[in-house]
Amino acid sequence: MTPQSEFLVLAPVGRQSVPPLRVLLAGMNSLPGLADPQNALAPFGDFPAIHVARFVVLEDETREDLAAFGAPVTDLPTYLAFMVDCDGEATDLLDELATRAGAGLRRIFSHCDGFGPATDLRAWMDAHLVKPQAVYRNWPGRTVGQVREEAALRDALSGELRRAMAEGEVTAQALHARLRTYARDHGPALTPEAPTPAAWKRRHLWSLVSGVVILAIAAPLLLIAAPVLLGVLRWRETNDPEITTPSDRRRQQRIAALEDHDVSNPFTAIGTIKPGGFRAAVVAAALWLINFGSEHLYKRGRLARVGTIHFARWIVIDGGQRVLFVSNYDGSLEAYMDDFINKVAFGLNLAFSNGVGYPTTSFLLFQGAKREEQFKAFLRRRQQLTDVWYKAYPGLTAFDLARNSEIRRGLEDPELTGAPLRAWLAKI
User: Fold this and answer.
1) Whole-model pTM above 0.70?
2) Run of H or E including 362
3) CA dihedral of residues 31, 36, 39, 43 (deg, nearest 10)
4) pLDDT single digits (tens) 140-163
5) Quick one: 148 exposed, middle or buried, by C-beta within 10 A (0-12, 13-18, 19+)?
6) Which burial class, exposed, middle or buried, applies to 145 when counting CB atoms under 10 A from its CB (0-12, 13-18, 19+)?
7) H-helix or E-strand spanning residue 7
8) Burial of 412 (0-12, 13-18, 19+ CB in 10 A)
9) Which end of the chain has fewer CB atoms at under 10 Å, N or C?
10) Dist CA 133 CA 369 (whole Å)
11) 3-state secondary structure of 53
12) Which residues have CB under 8 Å from 319's CB, separation 6+?
């Protein structure tokens, strides 16, 4: 298995630099917000390890909401975020990007504070890397190459299946044998799965063991402290001010114009964490749980009951004052929000209810996102315009990727018979 990794380069941008930066980034696109794989600045299509990538100028328009808590409203930077999810080690891809796309990246980052003509690009990116607190990957180990090969396989088998049925060959066993012969003789060639790196196995095992130990130690302590913790939590839930400022319609129209040019979309949002050490601790614990669950439980195509997400990340920035959330999902934003509200509203509450302006929850997990209109307004006010977004396999949903992998497995199984064989043929 080839593990996946990610990186975020986050750098402050002066407000006067934002307009020319956005113009430069727009020149990378073939459609509004959708990157040309061969754009002149960062030709993502030349880097076969990249699944998804984005450039986003982060302009938080909700900071003033903090005043409702009686907390001082400090001015935090506007950022340029460069984010990639990739196969293999992120450091290897960063090396390759700095070498092969260095000139274009320098033009982009020249708009950032502290980046000049003599700046060492690779060292500068390293200095501005920010680690996520939680990461979700739809199917760890499914590489870009595998996705493309399996999509080509499905297309080839579909054509041959139609020809076979037109010629009168209709028994399931005969069709399976014919498709296996066709794939062997005509391809496409399928790359065998690479061995899993020993270092990744050790890290993964350590993450599992240490996580179980932490949970085993924390559980009885939390049980003892539960009356106090729940009391504090409930007091805060009932006393935190509600903020129902609607999102700016024109801003949302600009964001919507960048969406639905593919079957998948990017989502980028930034928001302020409610003041106080208690909320900071709850955020840290919640994101730790999400990361542990994503790595060890939800690693086969679904985040809880939601199967439309390719990659997602939660990143705490600005010394714990704000959280950045990014995801890559199938379908429209409205359907995406409805999917979560209807299936895992408790997960939304766990992840986001410590943010300023979130709909009031009950004991952290209840209510909150169930207040649908208020929750959607909360998300839309914090959603960012994703200036540039790249996806290595346009036109393919997470469902398509899973189906194509199942088709490959069925093709490689010479003993496939009965109902499983008929179900396999139906997938083609």
Assistant:
1) yes
2) strand 361-362
3) 150
4) 999 999 999 999 999 999 999 999
5) middle
6) middle
7) strand 4-13
8) exposed
9) N
10) 22
11) strand
12) none
